[in-house]
UniProtKB/TrEMBL annotation:
Domain annotation C2: ranges: 1-109
Protein name: C2 domain-containing protein
Source taxonomy: Eukaryota, Metazoa, Chordata, Craniata, Vertebrata
Taxonomy, superkingdom: Eukaryota
Amino acid sequence: EEEGLRVFQSVRIKIGEAKNLPTYPGPNKMRDCYCTVNLDQEEVFRTKIVEKSLCPFYGEDFYCEIPRSFRHLSFYIFDRDVFRRDSIIGKVAILKEDLQKYHNRDTWFQLQHVDADSEVQGKVHLELRLSEVITDTGVICHKLATRVLECQGLPIVNGQCDPYATVTLAGPYRTKEKKTKVKK
C-alpha cells in the first residue's frame, strides 16, 4: 500500500427469494423464514421474517464495507421458532475467490444441509509427546503431553475471537478433560 492510500472492499447483495423449502413437521406445515448473510461465521445482515411460507420472497438489498479478510460469504435460511431456538433450514456458502463469477448475475443456488461438523473452521498447530513412565511399583504407564502452538483461520463472531482448546483423553476406565485459558 502506498502512503495515504486506503484499500477497502465492499459487497452489495440482493436477496431475492427462496423456493420449495421443506414443510414444517407440525400440523401447520408452513414456516416463518428469514435469511442471514455471514462473513465466515459472523452475521452481518438479517432479512425481515416472512411468515407462513415455503417460498418466502425477501426482495432486500444489503451493502457493507468488508472490514477484514474472509474466506466464505454464506447465506443461512432459518425457521423462526418463538418457543425454542430458531432452526437452520439450509445454507449457501460461496468462496471469496468465486464471488466474481456471480457479479451482476441473478443466480439460484441449491441449499446445502447444515450440520455441526460442516460449520467448523480453522486450523490448529499441535505438539504431541507420548512417553513411557515407569512407576515405583514397576508398572509402565503412558504420559501424553499436548501443547497448542497456534491457531489460524478461526471464525470471528461479533467482531471478536476468544479461542480456547479442550483436550479430552478417553481411556478404558475413565475420561480426562483439560481446557486451556482463553486467548485474547
